[in-house]
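A student in our group prepared the protein record below, which I am reviewing. This is what I was given:
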Amino acid sequence: MTRMFPTFQVRLYGLDPLADYILMMDFVPVDDKRYRYAFHSSSWVVAGKADPVSPPRIHVHPDSPAKGGQWMKQVVSFDKLKLTNNQLDDNGHVSKRTPRQTRRR
């Protein structure tokens, strides 16, 4: 299990200061390819077709729920987020089975 590096940080604006919000993050594949790191060229290269997409694992920010005013007064960081390749993980970690390009949402 590894911590995500660099950590994802965001500043929020326009929330209702008195409303409660829950912040969540998950990852979705960018394409259907698997990648491996090529040390000789210091880059990621395509290594075949990726495994089938598994259901998303959602990471809830540990300060959730909180008022909009609380979220907007500081940078929100997902620094406790950990990635794992264990599909049976029940510790709330985000699961990534194979090296593939993903985007946060």
